Amino acid sequence: MKRLTRSTTDRWIAGICGGIGEYLEIDPNVIRVIWIIFTVPTGFFPGIIIYILLWILLPEEGQARPVGTFGEA
Fold first, then answer.
1. What integer is the mean pLDDT of 27-36?
2. 15 in any annotated domain
3. Rounded Cα–Cα distance for residues 55 and 9 (Å)
């Protein structure tokens, strides 16, 4: 199962766009351009808040908890 994580190899700031690009199997630069197109006209605020929230919520690549380990000893 594929998981959405922050990229550790294709990152400019936190690896959010790189991780989304890897998850969707498209070039992360396309995600970055879409992010800019969304963020600039809205006055930067919503795009920056969403980016910070994703930075906090998404685990880095390799740090995601494997399926079925919750509560196991």
1. 91
2. no
3. 15
